[in-house]
Each structure stands twice: as C-alpha cells, then as structure tokens.
Design brief:
Its EC number is 2.7.4.3. Belongs to the adenylate kinase family. Its main location: cytoplasm. It is built from 8 helices and 5 strands; from the N terminus they run βαβαααβαβααβα. With 190 residues, the protein is an alpha/beta fold. It has one domain (2-184): P-loop containing nucleotide triphosphate hydrolases (Rossmann fold, 3-Layer(aba) Sandwich), CATH 3.40.50.300. It has a 5-stranded parallel beta sheet, sandwiched between helices. Helix 1 (14-25) packs across helix 8 and helix 6 (118-132) crosses helix 7 (140-162). The radius of gyration is 16 Å and the shape is globular.
Amino acid sequence: MINIVLFGKPGAGKGTQAEFLKEKYNLIHLSTGDIFRFNMKNDTALGKEAKGYIDNGELVPDSVTIKMLQDEVEKNMDSKGFLFDGFPRTIPQANALDEFLKTKNWEVTATIALEADDNVLVERILERGKTSGRVDDQDAEKIRNRYEEYNEKTAPLMDFYRAQNKFHAVNGIGSIAEITERLSAVIDTL
C-alpha cells in the first residue's frame, strides 16, 4: 500500500503528474477539486451541503471535505494505494487523514512537493487560463493571492511531514517527462 500526498502551488503540475503516476504505480488519484465537483454536480447529500457553504461565500468545513474523501477511499478498498491531490491543505486536515488511514491500518507513505518559482507558475496559469475558462486563471493578482494562501496554510504541512521523515521536494521545472522521472525516483525508494 502506497499513499502519497502530492503538494504544489496552483500551476505546479500536480494534475498532470498525477495522471502519469496513477498509471505507473496503479494508484487511485483522489483530487479534492474533482470530488467536490462530482458531489455537487450529482446532488449528493455532501454535495448539497458543500454547495450551501460555497453559495454563501464560506469555506467548506473540513468535516465535509474529509467525509467526501473518506467515501472515495471506501469505494476503492482493494487498491494498491492512493495519490492525494489537494488534500490535506492544513495540519488539522493532515491529522484527520492520519486518523482515518489508521482505521484501515494504513498511513501516509510520503509527501512530495513540486517546487517552482512563483513567476514561472504565474505564467503557466495565465497560459492555462486562455483555455480553462476559469476566471481565477486569468488574473495575475488573483493567482498570487492563491499563492499567499498556499504559503500560509499549506506550507506548514511541509514541516509537519518533515518531522515524520515523510517529506520530499522535487524540482517542478522542466519537461513533463523530466518531472515524472524525478517523482518516480522518489517513489521508487519508498
């Protein structure tokens, strides 16, 4: 069982790399963004609850996010492992993930951060914004605000996992193949 948490600022290539890694290592890719969209689109009870918070301009509470994630894990109990993308984002979420995985006699195997210069990432996202249709991908100031939020909330997780000897940083600049190779080099040592 390999359970990997993939970190990186918006535009770092988490989604792109997750596609390669899930195939190569036969992992289930759990993207919280995708899980949220699925639940809201399909009007599940959790989707309705999350939509209520979002419609009021509020953050969806950890309890709802964690329950959605747990439901996805429960659907894939016979998998070889999971690739968590976009979760956890805070230390309380990391603790909740650890507690949930313990109920299955599993643990987070490693966390891997795709690291890249903010200016490079802003350019990547602005380029993506030309086709993504996402308004927040088309405004450099909004992108930089997302990075500030990442630094405040998610970056402390690096120390959290570093203290457990589960943190690995990988250079996220280069060709897709080069970055996949760097990530694989870390995963192959686990």
